[in-house]
# Entry
Amino acid sequence: MKIEIIKCLKDNYSYLIIDETNKNACVIDPSESLPVINFIKDNNVKLKYILNTHHHYDHVGGNLELKRKYDSKVVGFRKDRERIPGIDIFLEDNQIWKEDNFEAKIYHIPGHTSGHIAFHFFKEKIIFTGDTLFSLGCGRIFEGSYEQMFNSLNKIKNLPKETKIYCGHEYTLQNSYFCITQDSKNAKLKNKILNIKKKLEKGIPTVPTILNEEIECNIFLKAKNIKSFSKLRDLKDNF
Ligand code: ZN
Ligand code: FE
# Structure
């Protein structure tokens, strides 16, 4: 499987997972249709599935146009079926979703929204975390509790350390400013920030990031309990 990063809107990332054996593809969180359509045209892939991590417009905005144009199936969390435009395939927590050569485990990871899920392509060791885990940050808690968000992050934290994380936004540099104020002696974090800056200067996305690095550098994954996590989340909201 090949992953293509598609920049959308101001700072969103959509992703295409392409099966190179047959050119079948899934798109994750198409914020808007046009950048995805342009890629498909140039690369001759067949868009078979549209996967959504959650219902926010900057993750589902392209669903209906892409579905209409390519006759793709929209895949999302069953409990969000009223909020995910064009949904065809309903997912449950801990289910394995398998179609064609695509295979992902679904994790319900509430907090940012009540119906947020992650797609873990475990054979490829990659996970799409939407707006729950970002590089050096985590999503704002809109519909859930601190406890839910903390538990959701812990689920991701327990995956194999070499797992690659593809998140919904390019927030990494901004997130790094907060991490460094909380963790100013962390040499690995300092080094990661240098790398982030180099990438961004060249116009290269800072995603994917590696779970191992996030565990060492992301202050939200370093929180030991709900209390300290909640405190960090409040500080970041006012940062
Ligand atoms: Zn969101
Ligand atoms: Fe978002």
Residues 54, 56, 59, 112, 131 surround zinc ion (ligand 1) (CB under 6 Å). The CA atoms of residues 182 and 190 lie 12 Å apart. The two ends are 38 Å apart (CA to CA).
